[in-house]
Design brief:
By secondary structure, the protein is α/β, with parallel strands linked by helices. It has two domains: 5-15 and 27-45 and 66-85 and 98-122 and 213-258 and 270-404, Alpha-Beta Barrel (TIM Barrel), CATH 3.20.20; 136-205, no CATH class. 43% of the residues lie in helices and 14% in strands. The protein has helices at residues 5-8, 26-31, 52-64, 79-83, 88-104, 140-151, 162-173, 177-188, 200-208, 215-236, 261-270, 282-286, 293-300, 332-348, 382-404; strands at 12-16, 36-39, 68-73, 109-112, 124-128, 134-138, 239-242, 276-281, 304-309, 311-314, 320-323, 357-360. The chain has an eight-stranded parallel beta barrel with strand order 1-2-3-4-7-8-9-12, surrounded by four helices. The two termini are 15 Å apart.
Length: 405
């Protein structure tokens, strides 16, 4: 028997691609075995509507490479929507227009995030593992150095222990000026797929806009966004999927609203619609020890529209690093079991969209990619993600075959 994906009803294998400027070409993605791509039109400024022609051009480029555009990652949410200030009607109209144009090109899943100011944050982009490969790492001491010594955010010291503050100052003193500049740039200029050229003063100005925005206020602004765009998404057949906070706890004195199971339940209740859903990222959620990932997936399974599979290894000092995809702090077999069960439920219900798109995330930089690390997007080298995809594929095949025994 030829055990292909349709025979075993596996999820759709995807790969992140940052567009024509991505150092990983589509031809290499095709060779990983992935059938689809998670990508975005990074050239379009935040808040502007996506032209249908640009969407079609990207879709056709993927098709020419033998790949499908399975999920948009992402249509960014403008900072003014998050702060609740500015010309919100225009921003909502533009977002809705983008959704309509994507639906017209038969792209059905749109991922976004509602993290204030910065997207995902790490303190080390090239943390060396014992085997010589490199990965992303978050160290609260080093991030404290950014907040206290570089950004000089008022009150930042109160968010850390006295020992962490002392260690942060010592580490900062150990760096020369060039090393400090490189480190600061690694924190503030890693927006997905683009370089915004932000400075520390830009970050300070952005933070100032959140001075009177607490967790409840940010939730209300998120709900306002959902109330504006979810009806359009439902009308045109788009499934919106919010990405969890990364890391899943407050940073920079800013609130976080997609970090726990209670957070997910809150935004799903805010607008009850199948179009209002979640991108289930095991890596993001796993950085909190109180998140039970298999239970969370099972609880929200019917509202999961896309999946990122990766694992972090939490350490006693509060730091974490990107582990192998089947190692670390995530019970990946249990999560994948829940994913397969949800697909089976959807398929039994006769849903045409039963197959969930997933991708391996934040792979290690290893082997030949180590020599190219300076030109690669942190966390998105090809070989490490291909290894992760192969491991996840093997896990899924093993679970499916076990069902037949």
């Amino acid at each position: 028997m030829n055990f292909t994906a349709p025979d075993l009803f596996l999820p759709e294998e995807g790969f992140r691609w940052y567009g024509p400027g991505d150092p990983v070409p589509l031809a290499h993605i095709r060779q990983t075995g992935a059938a689809s791509v998670f990508t975005s039109l990074h050239q379009i400024p935040y808040g502007e509507a996506w032209p249908r022609e640009a969407i079609r051009e990207r879709k056709e480029a993927l098709a020419a490479a033998g790949l499908r555009w399975s999920a948009v990652e992402s249509v960014p949410v403008h900072e003014e929507i998050k702060t609740g200030r500015g010309d919100l009607p225009r921003l909502f109209r533009n977002y809705a227009e983008s959704l309509r144009h994507l639906a017209a090109e038969e792209i059905g899943v749109v991922i976004y995030n509602f993290m204030p100011v910065l997207d995902w944050v790490r303190s080390d982009m090239r943390y060396v593992l014992p085997d010589g490969s490199e990965c992303l790492r978050f160290d609260p001491v080093r991030f404290a150095a950014f907040e206290i010594e570089a950004l000089r955010r008022p009150g930042a010291e109160a968010d850390y222990t006295p020992a962490q503050v002392e260690q942060a100052a010592a580490w900062w003193r150990s760096l020369n000026e060039a090393e400090r500049e490189t480190y600061v740039a690694s924190i503030i200029d890693v927006f997905p797929g683009c370089k915004l050229g932000l400075t520390l003063d830009d970050i300070r100005a952005m933070l100032a806009k959140y001075q009177d925005i607490d967790r409840d206020a940010l939730r209300k602004n998120h709900a306002r966004f959902l109330e504006a765009v979810v009806p359009v998404a439902e009308e045109v057949g788009i499934r919106l999927a919010v990405h969890p906070d990364d890391p899943p706890y407050p940073i920079l004195g800013l609130p976080r609203i997609v970090s726990t199971a209670d957070d997910v339940a809150a935004f799903l209740r805010a607008v009850e619609s199948p179009a209002n859903g979640l991108c289930f990222c095991t890596g993001s959620f796993s950085a909190r020890p109180d998140n039970d990932l298999p239970a969370m997936f099972a609880r929200f399974a019917d509202r999961v529209h896309a999946v990122h599979l990766r694992s972090t290894q939490r350490l006693p000092d509060g730091s974490f690093f990107e582990a192998d995809h089947l190692a670390g702090s995530v019970d990946m077999p249990a999560v994948v079991r829940a994913l397969l069960d949800e697909q089976d439920r959807r398929r039994a219900a006769g849903r045409a969209d039963w197959r969930l798109p997933f991708r391996p995330d934040h792979g290690h930089t290893m082997m030949d990619d180590l020599a190219k690390a300076e030109t690669l997007i942190p966390g998105y080298a090809c070989i490490g993600r291909m290894r992760g995809l192969a491991e996840l594929r093997g896990l899924m095949l093993g679970l499916r075959h076990a069902e037949r025994l």
